[in-house]
């Protein structure tokens, strides 16, 4: 099958969305499918307001149309709600071509962290965006319940995996810091709530792996923490495996792939009991969830690393990729069933 994946999030961005989409594309190809990624590097771009590190496609409809028509997909998946996602949605609706979408980011909460736009306004926009899709894929049961409570329809589950051959227990001596080492991995941005981790009174060393618009401010404010920038591949896996506890302070993530990667390394997770962690962490086994993040961190240090590793081994990318494939809406199968959805939006 020829599968087009349209996304506003792609390399050189480093985040869970890009990791999920790139790994899924590789998995689909391994299963014999022809996959085309339509992404911002193929277009003229402009910096995302308030987040200039992210580049968005500028007026992409014409070129996106040409790329899709040239490829001739059997199925189209629109992964994001940015300018490219909107262009692909418009192309599909005009041609009565069924498509699926996915909900990777709690966008309304991210926007509200930067500008005072009411959640109801942002959710109304996203509900309209996804309403014409045959299915909208989400990573966790909690995310499904949240969106359904906001009026979203046709929600299905698309879980995540972890590369257990890369993320595995390794030598703790890789990091020569006072123990225990508490680690955060991800974008250094306001919506990730990293300061909740950095201001904790903890023994040992706090390590931040990643970069982003808030790094300079936080690095100056918390000089005792170790900011090491982005790491990739073996180096990233070695950093994660060398920590003693993985702290996930975000309250707005839809999944948190890095938590699975930490567990695969035998590192327990400390997090808030919110969407994302509540479906990824097994309380008291692979991590500790607590509104008191310090208490969660100290309790997680006592958990069995072998239990964390065992949990991660059950979450493979092959399973996640086959789940994604089963939710796609190939035109010849679902065209008749999506016409009613198209009537909702003629844009």
TrEMBL record:
Q: Which InterPro entries match?
A: Glyco_trans_4-like_N (IPR028098), Glycosyltransferase_grp1 (IPR050194)
Q: Does the keyword Transferase apply?
A: yes
Q: MF terms per GO, please?
A: glycosyltransferase activity
The UniProt entry, under Gene3D superfamilies, shows: Glycogen Phosphorylase B
Record key words, sorted: Transferase
| Residue span(s) of domain Glycosyltransferase subfamily 4-like N-terminal | 15-165
The entry's protein name is Glycosyl transferase
């Amino acid at each position: 099958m020829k599968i087009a994946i349209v996304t506003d999030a792609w390399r050189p961005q480093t985040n869970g969305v890009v990791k999920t989409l790139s790994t899924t594309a590789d998995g689909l190809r391994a299963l014999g499918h022809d996959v085309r990624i339509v992404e911002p590097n193929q277009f003229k771009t402009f910096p995302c307001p308030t987040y200039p590190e992210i580049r968005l496609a500028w007026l992409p409809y014409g070129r996106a149309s040409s790329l899709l028509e040239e490829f001739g997909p059997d199925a189209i998946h629109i992964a994001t709600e940015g300018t490219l996602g909107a262009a692909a949605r418009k192309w599909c609706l005009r041609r009565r071509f069924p498509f699926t979408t996915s909900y990777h980011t709690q966008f309304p909460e991210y926007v509200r962290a930067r500008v005072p736009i009411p959640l109801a306004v942002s959710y109304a926009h996203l509900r309209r965006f996804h309403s014409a899709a045959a299915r909208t894929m989400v990573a966790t049961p909690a995310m499904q319940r949240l969106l359904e409570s906001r009026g979203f329809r046709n929600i299905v589950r698309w879980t995540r995996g972890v590369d257990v051959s890369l993320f595995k227990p390794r030598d703790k001596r890789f990091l020569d810091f006072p123990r225990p080492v508490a680690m955060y991995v991800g974008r250094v941005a306001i919506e990730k709530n990293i300061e909740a981790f950095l201001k904790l009174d903890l023994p040992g060393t706090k390590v931040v792996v990643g970069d982003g618009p808030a790094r300079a401010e936080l690095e100056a404010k918390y000089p005792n923490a170790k900011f090491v920038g982005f790491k990739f591949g073996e180096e990233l896996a070695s950093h994660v495996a060398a920590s003693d506890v993985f702290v996930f302070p975000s309250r707005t993530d839809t999944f948190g792939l890095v938590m699975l990667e930490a567990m695969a390394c035998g590192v327990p997770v400390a997090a808030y009991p919110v969407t994302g962690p509540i479906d990824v962490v097994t309380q008291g086994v692979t991590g500790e969830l607590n509104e008191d993040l310090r208490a969660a961190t100290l309790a997680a240090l006592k958990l069995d690393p072998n239990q964390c590793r065992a949990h991660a081994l059950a979450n493979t990318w092959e399973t996640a990729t086959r789940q994604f494939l089963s939710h796609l809406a190939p035109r010849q199968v679902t065209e008749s069933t999506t016409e009613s959805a198209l009537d909702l939006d003629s844009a």
